[in-house]
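[job 4471] stage=fold_predict status=RUNNING
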Amino acid sequence: MAVREDLRLSGADDQALAVARAESHAPRSAIESPRVLVSILVPALAPAAERAARVVYALRGAPGTATLGARRETAIEAADAFTAAAARHFA
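[job 4471] inference complete, writing structure tokens
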């Protein structure tokens, strides 16, 4: 999603945006299915999984590249926090 938003912010043409939008649908599925499974199977990890998914979706609609970069960092941190929570849970 970060690539798609970067294209949007840089004024890419409609075709490039359409291709990037289509490509972003696969990661969305890759995010949602595991998030739902984790929430059902390991409820203690649901908040961390939800936060990780939510901050990835927050990449959309960033008003500028600085905000996009900050949101990307937040998404990486949330994914790392989820991994750490899972490691603690299963330790």
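[job 4471] summary: The chain has a mean pLDDT of 87.
[job 4471] exit 0
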